[in-house]
Amino acid sequence: MLKEIKLNYFQPHKQSELPLHEGLNVITGSSDAGKSSIIRALRWVYENRPLGDSIKNWNYSEKETSVSIKTFEDYVISKTRNGTNSYSLGKKEFDVTKTEVPQEVTDTLNLSDCNIQLQHESYFLLDESPGERAKIINELSGLDIIDKIFKNLNSKILSTKRDISSEESNIKSLTEDIEKLTYLDAVDVTLSSIESLLIKSKELWENISSVSGYIGVIQLIREGIKKTEKLRSLEKPARELLGKIEDYQESDRKLNEVKSIVHNIKKIRELIQIDQEWLEIEKPTIDLLKKIEESKSLSIKINAINSLVENIHNIGKERGKKENLLASLNEKYEAFVKKNKLCPLCGGKLNASISNR
Fold it and tell me: Would you identify the CATH topology of the domain 2-121?
């Protein structure tokens, strides 16, 4: 049985590990997730197909493509492609050509298409004819060797009968020739031939005895076939079991859907709770933001008032300077008028009373 599959740069997989369990394993996932590639990887190992580089991950075309399979008996089978195909079983290496698969690998894996069921394939055994079902069950139970033995035995029996008939015909012909011979030398040669033919005939009769032994084996095999008829009686319970398995799978699918819905409801409740908490602090937050805006507005007004006060203070200083300058000019003006007694407007002479005024 398979315990683990590792895929390195195989089609969409970069580095994937898939643990398996004893018995039935079901691979599920969304579309284009690489489920079918896992099946193709298995077939690539036990069938050595497809050939070429169609199995490579073209995003990492320079990397080496490999698939490793570990069994519950701790055997590790690996197949690698880097220009050519090669297998390894433990520490033993195998180089292969075309679709050849090392017999040691085939025996260790013990896999066939009967072990794999794809998504859209018909149900195993249920859609097959009774004869095809019997053939598959014989292959799975190892009873197909009976058909092979029957075929080989019939072939050997037919071949032996043909040889006996041919030798008997030769003996008859030689015997007739001996009766017609008139020369002693010819008789001696003929006797030698007859002796040789008798030896061959003896060997043929020994082969016939061996065939009789095979017939006894065939009888035993037939008895075994009768015992295997009991397996056919299991077909109806097997069909019912498969029906129950389908019902279980459907129930399990619905249960997973319900679990998903419950999980989504919990997530929605958590989001509603978070929204409620935000709503509780929304009004205080808005009031605080308004106060911050009012504070910013007051700060701007205070800065404007401070600027005005500073301007007024500067104007006061400037006014004091102007008043001092004006006073100085008045003094100079009065001194000029008193000294020169001239009118600053017309330049005329001023009397003492006017100049003093």
Answer: Rossmann fold (3.40.50)
Q: Residue 21 and residue 8: Cα distance in Å, rounded?
A: 21
Tokens of 135: 């053939």
Exposed/middle/buried for 105, CB within 10 Å: 0-12, 13-18, 19+? buried
Sorted by where each begins, the domain ranges of the chain are: 2-121, 140-233, 236-323
From CA 20, how far away is CA 209, in angstroms rounded? 52
pLDDT in tens, 15-37: 899 999 888 888 888 888 888 88
Residue 159, token pair as written in the block: 């071949």
Kindly list the distances between the CA atom of residue 266 and the CA atoms of 187, 254, 262, in Å, as whole numbers in the listed order: 109, 18, 6
Q: pTM score, two decimals?
A: 0.40
Task: Report the CATH number of the 140-233 domain.
Answer: 1.10.287
* 282's tokens: 């929304």
Which residue bears the tokens 């089609």? Answer: 11
